Structures are given as C-alpha cells and as structure tokens.
Amino acid sequence: MKMKKIYKYILIIVVLGAIIGGGTVYYVFNKPHRNIKDETPAYTYTAKDLYKEYSEDEEAGNMKFGDKVIQVTGKIVEITNENNDISFVLNDEMESVNCALDSMFIKNNKPLIENYDLGGDITLKGKCDGFDMIMGVVLTQCFIVK
Amino acid sequence: MKIKLIVLIIFSFIYTEAISQKYITKTGKIEIFSQTPLFTIDGVNKKVASILNAANGDIVASTLVRSFRFEEALVEEHFNENYLEPNKFPKSIFKGKIVNFSDVDINKNGTYDITIAGKLTIHGVTHDISEPGKLIVKDGNITGTTSFNVSLQDYKVKIEKAYKKAIKDAILLKIHFNYKLYKKS
After folding, report:
1. Beta bridge partner(s), residue A43
2. B124 touches chain A (CB under 8 A)
3. Which of A119, A128, B62, B134 has the fewest beta carbons closer than 10 A?
4. pLDDT averaged over 10-residue windows placed end to end, chain A, 146 residues
5. B47, B67 in Cβ contact below 8 A?
6. What ipTM was assigned to the predicted interfaces of this complex?
7. What residues of chain A lie within 8 A of the CB of B73, using their CB?
8. Which chain B residue lies closest to A87 (C-alpha atoms)?
9. What are the chain A neighbours of B65 within 8 Å (beta carbons)?
C-alpha cells in the first residue's frame, strides 16, 4: 500500500516535470516575433532631421537608434515595389530614410497603401536597422501611422 | 585656351556618360540557408542596395545585418545577439567587379556567365572572394544573381559549443539583384 503511494507521487512529479519542461521548450522554440506594431516609438522624428542627425555621426546614430522603434514623418520621394514588398523612400533621393513596410501590414492594407503617392507626406513607425551609404537610414517592419 | 575648352567639353561628355551608365537597386535580396538534421537556418534580407557601373563592371553592394528576417524568432534573436553582433558590426559590404565584364553586352538581351571578385566584409572581417554568377540583360534592365558558401569561421562568427553540431560552418548565400538604370532627377 505504502509503496503504491510512493509510486503515485513519483508518477505525478514526473508528469508535472514533463509538462513544465515541455512547455518551456515549446515556448522558447515558438517564441513570438517582436511586435513592432504595439511598441511605443522610442523617438519621433521628421525624415529630414533623422537623416541629418544619423549622417553627421553614424557611430552615435547606431548607438541611439539601432534596433529601436522610430516614428518618422516625411515627403515620399520614391516608392519601390518588388514582388509586393513595398518601401517608401522619404525626404530626398540622396538623403533618404528608406522605410520597408511590414509584410503582414501590406497583405491586410492594400487600399490604404495605394492612397499614398509621390510628393505626399506620410508618417510611419518601424524598426531602425541602421545607416547605409546607398539607402540612407533604413527602417523595416514599418506600419503606416497616418 | 581653345584646347582647354575642348578638353573640358569632352570630359564633361565622358562624365555624363559615366553617370548614365550606373545601374542601381535598393531592393536586392540575400537568402541565407543552412541545414543539419538538428537545425535549419532560413533567413532573408530584402533591403540590399547595390550599384553596378556598366562603364567598367564595378559593383558595390551593402546591407544592414538587422534587416534579416527568420521564420523563428529564436533564430533571429541568436543571429543578431550572439552571431553577427550588429551592435558592433551593423553592415555587410561587398566592393569589387565583374572580372569578365568585357564578355557582357548590356545593350543586348541575353544571359551572361560572369565571375565576381572583390572584398566581402561580414562581421567586421574582410576576405577576398571570387565567385561565379549570372547577369541577365532584358530590355534595359539587368538582373544579377550569384550563390556561394561562406565559412562562419573565416568571418570569426563564433558558435557556442552546444550548437557546434547543429550549425554547419558553411552557410549558403543566394543573392538576387534587379538593377534599374539610375536616373538622376
């Protein structure tokens, strides 16, 4: 009788352990992606000021903006669309902030995106990947704010 | 005086010619792939910029490491925090040329086998590379493709002991650029 009870406890502990352990492994491997859409922007800039500040001191810019969510407003100077991956290039062709839209956002907001055209203003929010000599300041996973 | 003027005019023509011979893309694509029975790394970066100078075959290409996206968030996190360290080395850059560019006629539609050689910088480490690729000319647009392996060890990307068996040293890069003639507005 006593032995049976011990076995029962052991069994319970093993099962609980398996559930907790398995759950942890499952969570780690299926960890959700960072949710840029719901993150409050760390900085709000005009495209012109963002380019200026970043280009004047790239090292400092990397420290300040790298991997941060930034909200940026500017004039659309170029729209690139390659196999339905859409980017808005803001400010100036030579001094640009290049914003690649989030792929799910593109899928669900086609009519909204089509409202924006060259020469118009746009406000976007996205993750800052850094500064490139050709693309300028690069934001990816962007969402249109307005 | 007249000669100087003529020289100046000739040079300005050459200069304009050089500008109009540049092809650019800001939507190039790099896919990285590695697979072992234990682990698959499958990432893509669609924010790759490149300029091809059709006057001499010079190529520059650059991208930001953080623009890589992976199916699994965990892989993306490891890629960024442990392996490529974009905080220290935010960019990857290639500077080089198409070695056999004289074989290519950019005014004639066709597929040309090319060899690309130059300096590739990843994770702050620069190596000379020479890899085969293809250049496809179609109606004034140029598509460039290449794929080759890079060794993690060569570029000082450290893999933890626990993952050594799960991640191969050779990582396949597949690169695709759709160039358009650069028009100065």
Report:
1. A70
2. no
3. A119
4. 79 87 73 86 96 95 95 96 94 94 94 94 96 96 95
5. yes
6. 0.82
7. 31-34
8. B27
9. 129-130
